[in-house]
Specification:
Layout (H helix, E strand, L loop, with lengths): L14 H6 L5 E8 L3 H4 L11 E7 L4 E5 L2 H10 L3 E4 L2
Parallel strand pairs: 1-4
Antiparallel strand pairs: 1-2, 2-3
Amino acid sequence: MIRENASVRRGPLSSAEFAAVGDGHIAYVKPILSEELNALFPEAPELEPGLKLFALLGANGQPIVVADSREALFESAREHELVTVSVH
């Protein structure tokens, strides 16, 4: 069934529109090194360099939580009813 009043978007999303896609519903897991931690989480303590960590970020890039295992992040996402995707 075709809806006559349906609007079709043509062209790419703006940066703001793209950042809002999935906001509050989708989060992504990003592997980071301990050297990158304070850029995402300024309040985090300094850690020794070279540690492999995982950050959970909102669809808009807003940091949510950091952990030393992917499993811990996925559990945190489930607790907050977020769908997770991985970024490579």
